[in-house]
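no rush on this but wanted to send it before i forget. theres a chain ive been looking at and ive put its sequence and its fold in token form underneath. i want to understand how the tokens follow from the sequence so walk me through it. thanks a lot i owe you, the record is right below:
>
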Amino acid sequence: MNAIDLNIYNLNYDPPKKELWKGHTSVSKLNVKYWSQRIECINLQNDLTEVEKPDFAIIGYACDEGVRRNQGRVGAKNGPEAIRKQLSRLAFNHPPKRIIDIGNIRDVDEDMEKCQAALALVTEQLLTQNIFPIVLGGGHDVAYGHFTGIERAVQKRGINSIGIINFDAHFDLRPLKELPNSGTPFYQILNKYENRTEYFALGIQSVSNSPELFKIAKDKGVKYLLNDICELTSIEEVKNQLDSFVQQHDYLYVTIDLDGFSSAYAPGVSAPSPVGFSPSFVFKVLKYLFKTQKVVALDLAELNPKYDQDSATARLAAHLLDVVVDIKEFNQ
């Protein structure tokens, strides 16, 4: 594994904390292991040339400045550590696959833009080495930094077509009137990369998006499905709606805002709602998307441990990542 050069972004980097990865110790004759025993913590500031290339790299985006700017409930910067704690306790049933934790990109002095730039750099270099990035937010402003890195990496491969699939109650298409925030990332992406990407949002809730946002979505050619369609009973219709979008793009970037789930499953988010996805629905769609072998990166956003109940939202996030590792296939 080649070293990842953070150069001027070193102040925004925290190495991984091995103490977060505490779980059961397996003594079974079957040698069943847990995530806590399988994860490898890698400090990007060290020489990585002797490290064997992993399949996945977990990177935290410990920033909720975008949520603060968007007048939301701050606390999402602590999401990455909460997810790691819950993930460490899960049984690991993916023995051929290798996962590393490379720590957090964090906000310094409310400079969200620098945090996004550092995340873009790490994402680009991971993908250049064919390592699948799993980014743990943080506010949904994570999407702008993450996509920027993805776009740079795939441009090196001569690929121009990236489809964005967002599981979310909100479009996050707010126009830039002042500073960017957690409600603006896809507006920013579509403005900057309009000829190289398209956007499909699943789970949009009418009560959470103004008429202006629906108009922006229409003007920018955004495809979306309202929340009432995003049910297990309609899974085949959802797949049919996604089929043409998936076929039109060489790569897919998947982003999951945990506030798209019903608060019955995800109470610990910046903007909870009593209606929303069930975990089973999202698991089914993820399996469909990953079977295309076009998904190159994934992130989770908006976990706010301050408002979580019995760590339910962090547990859900951990299960989502376990499902992704299970279903992701690698072309050899």
User: Anything to note?
Assistant: The chain is about 35% helix and 20% strand. Residues 112-128 form the longest helix (17 residues). The chain has a mean pLDDT of 93.
